[in-house]
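Protocol step 4 of 6: structure prediction from sequence.
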Amino acid sequence: MSGKKVLVAMSGGVDSSVAAGLLIEQGYEVIGCTMQVWDYTQCSVDEGMGTCCSSQDVDDARAVADELGIPFYVINCEDEFKEKVIQPFVDSYLKGETPIPCVNCNTFLKFDHLVKKMKALDCDYLATGHYAQVGVSPYGQPAVFTSVDTHKDQTYFLFTLDPELIPKLLFPVGAMEKPEVREWALKKGWSVSKKKDSTGICFVGNDSYKNFVNKHSNTSQHKPGSIKLYPENEILGAHAGIHNFTIGQRKALGVNFNEALFVKSLDPDSGDVFLCRDSDLYSRDLVLKDIHLLDDFKSGEVLSLKIRYAHEAALGAIEKSQDHKSLKVKFKDPQRAITPGQAVVIYRGKQLLGGGWIHG
């Protein structure tokens, strides 16, 4: 690929570092770039290690870029990150939802600011360390496919991509297993080869979601209410805010009962939290809104769907609404703890077709 220039999003982790190294070996002209998304004074080095929220991670990315002998840029995205990722995360919990900030981060930062930087630097491609692959659909169009490493696959977070951007994307580690990626970095002598994978929500750090939301909201925004038993509607107790609960939660419910109970639903209007037995957590039906499609499908077609990142895809028939603004899903088998605020991501085989958001 001599003469082809690519901007590589480097987070300081092993995946994006190896992505940059692989592209150089393949003959690309590589430029590294890191987004500074968080005020590092609010996050200790230990909390930030393995995330995109530590100054150490930026230093690690810069060190790899120096080792590779490539230009390296840092883009300050703190204001946008707060507006597009953190605030919606807090607002979603306050509405009784369980948000996925990684999707917003990809949508409004990684594939927005980095695309602008790619164009500004006259690059031909944008590359990231995502475990995903770009290929050709059965209809001959550029498309996104799941990675070779199915355990690490990250296509769930990519359903909001602009289809026109797909031909410009490179996912160099998508054809590798994670151990291969680490081994590649180890042979280069990079310290990032042993760096732990990022887990959880990066900006929350070692804190709990509950505490994070409390710190970034005021008590007047919290919705207290009753804790009720479903379907009996018996009042079991009271709580200080629905942001302390999520669908399927079993621990820290604040009630005593002679059976194991789980959060079934949250009412953002009344503030009531409904608990149920495990058997009442299952459903075949859901509605998706704010739809984003990378490729089309027929109404009624049976496809594979993931109702959360760690979910094993399940088969379901999808009906399009007349205005194409929502989708109705009926699963072949009942699914446990379908959660408002989460995304349902749609696949045909290994191809990523798109997705939408679960609404209560």
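Step 5 (inspection) to follow. The chain has a mean pLDDT of 92.
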